[in-house]
Amino acid sequence: EKPTLRTAPSPLLRLSGAVQDAGLKVVTTGEGADELFGGYDLFRENAVRHFWAREPESELRPLLLTRLNAFIGKDLKRSGAFLVGFYRKGLTETEDPLYSHRLRFSNTSRLLSLLDGGVLERAGERGDPAERLEARLPDWFGEMTPLGKVQYLEISTFLEGYLLHTQGDRMLMGHSIEGRFPFLDYRVAELAAALPDQLRLRGLKEKYLLRKAVEHRLPAEIAARKKRPYRAPIVGAFVGPGAPDYVRELLDERRLADVGLFSPEAVARLVRKCEAGAPRDAVSETDEMALVGVLSVMLLHDRFVASPRPAEALVPDRVVVGEQVLPRASASAAA
């Protein structure tokens, strides 16, 4: 088990339940299309920053950033010079293997301020996570284009560990639904990897070739529609008068102090910020990730450390085999 910083798996678990209720057993999903064919704003951001880095004093080139990632722009409340200042960090360090992800690593690292000092110290003994990631990169990584590098990093850090596992298979199998991922067929992946960069990302047009391949099969407004990030509610679900009781219990300062993983004062400040809620932009996406991170860790601690359940309690008394409802022992024999 591992904690998550997103709530997106929850609605997908409900969606797989709806699939089961419809009597279906297998679904196809689109995971891999963005990673292989250049669909994420991160890829466009990386292209703009490389373009800007060739003339770092240009006042026109950074203006392209205003066309990217409305969620990040809103999250960080950036306009004008502040937006440019954020993306300027490490701008000319284009030889850095992790160049495309450094800004996100830096921004998300703010969450570490919520951890207890002792926990941070012990974690630091394992070394810097970015350095460990860089050490795992293949020897041929440096031979790839900037787009190839950011795609490789996104596939190995986000698609593999989160989208296909935490948010994908686990939510599907929560209702015994099997997922099929046609974009991840090795032949499709090989085709995508062999494409010139401009057929994956043409200027700032994401998934260029993929869109061209299907535009004649889709209504014009669908084929031309901009990619919209998948979002699930966070603050409204966990903070405020309607918050579930378990959230208040797990985030209670005394409970946090007893567990010893987080700074009770820092978490209390975060909760107060989320409760204030106005203006809405005052609660950033990083704040929301921090809230979910603390809550998911506390849930794991409660389930597996504070009050662990025996393995037998996790197995249902009855299971369905074919059209038969069998007690646990009979089901094991039937299997």
Gross morphology: globular
The amount of beta strand, in percent, is: under 5%
| Terminal-residue CA separation | 26 Å
Averaging pLDDT over every residue, what do you get? 86
* Sequence of strands across the biggest β-sheet: 1-2
* Secondary-structure element string: HEHHHHHHHHEHHHHHHHHHEEH
Number of strands: 4
Structural class: mainly alpha
Report the uncertain regions: 73-77, 330-335
The biggest beta sheet reads: 2 strands, parallel
Roughly how much helix do the residues carry, as a percent range? 40-55%
Number of helices: 19
Radius of gyration: 23 Å
Structure overview:
The protein is mostly helical. The chain has helices at residues 9-21, 33-37, 41-53, 70-75, 81-88, 102-108, 117-124, 129-135, 146-173, 186-194, 197-200, 208-214, 220-223, 235-238, 245-250, 253-259, 264-276, 285-306, 328-334; strands at 26-28, 178-180, 318-321, 324-327. The chain contains 19 helices and four strands. The strands form two sheets. It has a two-stranded parallel ribbon with strand order 1-2. The chain has a two-stranded antiparallel sheet with strand order 3-4. Strand 3 (318-321) and strand 4 form a beta hairpin. The relative contact order is 0.14. Residues 73-77 and 330-335 have low confidence and may be disordered.
